[in-house]
Write a structure and sequence with these properties.
- The structure is a single chain.
- 61% of the residues lie in helices and 4% in strands.
- The strands form 2 sheets. It has a two-stranded parallel ribbon with strand order 1-2. The protein has a two-stranded parallel ribbon with strand order 3-4.
- The model has no long low-confidence stretch (mean pLDDT 87).
- α5 crosses α6 and α6 packs across α11.
- It is built from 11 helices and 4 strands; from the N terminus they run αβααβαβααβααααα.
- The N and C termini lie far apart (78 Å).
- It is mainly alpha-helical and 295 residues long.
């Protein structure tokens, strides 16, 4: 929704909008090739979407690891093609950007873009969880962990940078006010009245709010969600910063536990393969002896 609106306000968000389906009938307004590259980076780090490791942080400064150089080259080529488009403004939208943010900040810095305009799209975690349950069959608990992880990744790497929070429900309730908020945050020209009408009547609709959060919450994600709602109005402050740091350290501890468990079971699997090889060797040796005896 937010990417579609930004596109209509004059920022080229994609040349190839991904078509929608039942859960998102108006499309995703993402750059498909970019999402594929991001997925390959995550897969190389055992962080595929369905992996239990997906929500936990990757190793420190992973984006500068030489293993990623082939992906950096892919993204550099994509960046250069994107910036060559003959349009005044261009942008990116992909939920994976929450995880890829330090890599992209490096890539933009290489071409002199040191202060990109950033919108942080905020949606109630319980509504995200319901969408993921309907689409992927994820539990509310796991979906809440994913929402928290993505937000923490983004906020961690946005620290010290200017960004604006745009709340999904605010767009549904008052699209005109949110158009003004977006225009101001991105430094765009004031849109013509017909553009506002097209956004209000053609892009925003009550039907987009297909999951209500009435009476429900993702308990673990709720403190961060409430802090972001406050920051939306007052700007990021010490409360949000301290909460992000505490919750980030919890994620890091979870990563370290997962890594130790992975190393332990990897060692066990390797030992099993070794023992299986020994058993196969002995079996072949006995078969050869049996053949000699039979002969």
């Amino acid at each position: 929704l937010l990417s579609n609106i930004v596109h209509m306000l004059g920022v080229n968000m994609t040349n190839d909008p991904v078509l929608g389906f039942e859960e998102n009938p108006k499309g995703f307004w993402e750059r498909r090739e970019l999402t594929f590259i991001h997925d390959r980076i995550l897969a190389d780090r055992d962080r595929e979407w369905v992996s239990p490791l997906h929500p936990v942080p990757m190793p420190p400064v992973w984006w500068r690891n030489l293993k990623q150089e082939k992906h950096r080259d892919e993204l550099r080529a994509y960046r250069d093609r994107m910036l060559e488009d003959p349009v005044p403004w261009t942008g990116l939208k992909d939920p994976r950007l929450c995880l890829m943010l330090p890599l992209w900040l490096d890539l933009l810095r290489e071409v002199g873009i040191t202060a990109p305009k950033i919108l942080l799209s905020l949606r109630a975690p319980v509504n995200v969880a319901k969408s993921l349950k309907a689409r992927d069959g994820f539990s509310m608990e796991h979906s809440g962990r994913l929402w928290t992880s993505y937000m923490l990744h983004a906020l961690r790497f946005l620290e010290g940078r200017e960004y604006s929070i745009v709340f999904y429900d605010d767009i549904i309730r008052d699209p005109n006010a949110q158009i003004d908020r977006i225009v101001s945050a991105l430094g765009l020209p004031v849109p013509d009245p017909h553009v506002r009408k097209d956004i209000r009547d053609g892009v925003v609709s009550k039907e987009l709010s297909h999951h209500s959060d009435a009476g429900e919450a993702c308990t673990a994600a709720e403190p961060l969600f409430q802090a972001l709602l406050e920051a939306k109005e007052t700007g990021p402050g010490p409360h949000l910063g301290n909460l992000v740091e505490d919750m980030w350290q919890d994620l890091v501890r979870e990563r370290d536990i997962c890594q130790r468990a992975t190393d332990y079971y990897t060692g066990k699997i390797e030992l099993c393969h070794k023992k299986l090889g020994e058993v196969t060797y002995l079996k072949d040796l006995l078969s050869a002896k049996d053949s000699q005896i039979a002969g």
